[in-house]
Amino acid sequence: MSLPRRLAFIDVESTGAHPVRDRITEIAILRIEDGQVVASWESLVCPGQPIPPLIREVTGISDEMVADAPSFEALADTVEALLADCVFVAHNARFDFGFIKSAFDRIGRRFDAPVLCTVKLSRALYPEHHRHGLDALIERHQLVCDARHRAMGDVQALWQFVCQARAAFAPEVLERAVERAMKAAAQAPGLPEGLLEAVPDVPGLYLFHDTPEPPAGARDTRPLYVGRAQSLRARVREHFAAQARKGRDAELAARVRRVEWVETAGELDTSLQELALLRRFGPPYNRPQEPADTVFALRLLTGRRRAPIYERVPVAGTDPAQWTGLHGVFRNAREVDNLLRELAMLYRLCPRRLGLEGGSGPCTACQGRRCAGVCARRESIDEHDGRLAAALSALGPKPWPWSGAVFVRESNAHSGREMFHLFDRWCHLGSVPDAASLAAMAASTARAFDADVARILTRWLAVPVHLAGVQPVDGLGATGAE
After folding, report:
1. Number of Cβ within a 10 Å radius of residue 414
2. Strands 6-14 and 258-263
3. What is the three-class DSSP state of 150?
4. Alpha-carbon distance 308 to 300, whole Å?
């Protein structure tokens, strides 16, 4: 038979995308037996938590509408009876299945059913198309949906799609497509049902935890790992794919019990938030972060007879506008030594005078004619240190390209997130979701140098299209509200 005898088309609306943390606000079910609708049922559901503004805007379901609605517990017997002995049919089905299963779990009842995903069914039947979301199906197949993003409207559209498919394809073709659509995707054994399907297909950050969902208001735990992705859904699923479960990756996947995600406005927003999370938590499966407060620059001490001829000047948290005679940004002595060895080779400088070699008399480089001979009195200290000063001058600090503070606007069409980032002299002064407070923030926030932020910004500005989008705060009146 091309279709299972009993099907239950179901759609849920909810307070968000997380099947454990969020709650159902509406359910609709069409029960189909032998190709005929035998039951049509829908109900609002009191979620016991506020509905976020964005969700209210999309679904049209408000807190007032669900205030007097029954709880899921009051509806559980009806839902269970309508779904009994049926294949659970939904669009991105594991998402809806996860919400229903979690709702039953919370009242101490077990729920399970075979699942048919109409996204997968559409992909199997119409592989020539790239888009298989419900909006795409409605447009492509001219489905009638009187109330998009309301549970019954979406369910009726799905039933129309399946009826069209049944009429358009031979039974054996449809049967093979149904088998593919009912094949369960790889699931992480430690994660709640439907969680991987709930992860959005947008840029952002994801956090893996080895603890379940904490109670509301509880302090969050340290994540095992923080990652970034252009597609959160695809990247998170990769971690739990069979081919990825090897060695340390397998160990991480086995420990995960919860996934959090943060949608971001763009690459810069992602990098800044990632840095903050890595510093705050120090996740054990990420590369350890080097201390930010030990960063220093070099200042040349001219005229000194013996090494050291430079001093280390701490720069973390300082204002770059106040820097004088400073060169480079370093985290440790190894970085300085590597740089000085390179400069010694390029400019015939003396390793002994640079503090790289001990002893007295001609240095080893001088004996190999790689040193101009300040250690053997073949040139003066002023000549040697003049070449060193010229070499160090190229290290910066890199000039700030603008006369004052600037801002960067990032936005993501898929997530709807927008963020304005404020910078001055390589320092991040803050990020806000609208431009109204940027001028005041620029005037009131002190510059504090952060080497990691400066590195992030430098790399981001190296892309010409990014550089072209930078705007001075002085011109905010003309551009900030656009």
Report:
1. 11
2. unpaired
3. coil
4. 9
pLDDT lower than 50: segments of the chain: 478-482
Angle between helices 151-168 and 118-125 (to 10 degrees): 30
CA distance 251 to 237: 15
pLDDT at 475: 67
User: In angstroms, rounded to a whole number, what is the distance separating the alpha carbons of residues 4 and 182?
Assistant: 11
Q: Which amino acid is at 192?
A: P
- The predicted-structure confidence for 177-208, as pLDDT tens digits, reads as follows 999 999 876 667 788 888 888 888 889 999 99
Query: Mapping DSSP to helix (H, G, I), strand (E, B) and coil, where does residue 216 land?
Result: coil
**What confidence score (pLDDT) does residue 480 get?**
42
Question: Alpha helix locations (H) across 241-380?
Answer: 247-255, 267-281, 333-347, 364-367
CA distance 414 to 230: 12
The residue among 383, 310, 306, 295 whose CA lies nearest residue 340 is 310
Q: Look at residue 183 in the predicted model and tell me its pLDDT.
A: 82
CA angle 51-57-139, nearest 5°? 125
Element (H, E) at 8: strand 6-14
Measured from the Cβ of residue 471, the count of other Cβ atoms closer than 10 Å reads 20
Element at 204 (helix H, strand E)? strand 204-209
Q: Which amino acid is at 177?
A: A
- With contact defined as beta carbons under 8 Å apart, do 109 and 33 qualify? no
Please report the pLDDT score of residue 143 as a whole number: 93
Residues with Cβ within 8 Å of 283's Cβ and at least 6 positions away in sequence, in order, are: 207, 222, 223, 224, 225, 226
- pTM confidence score: 0.76
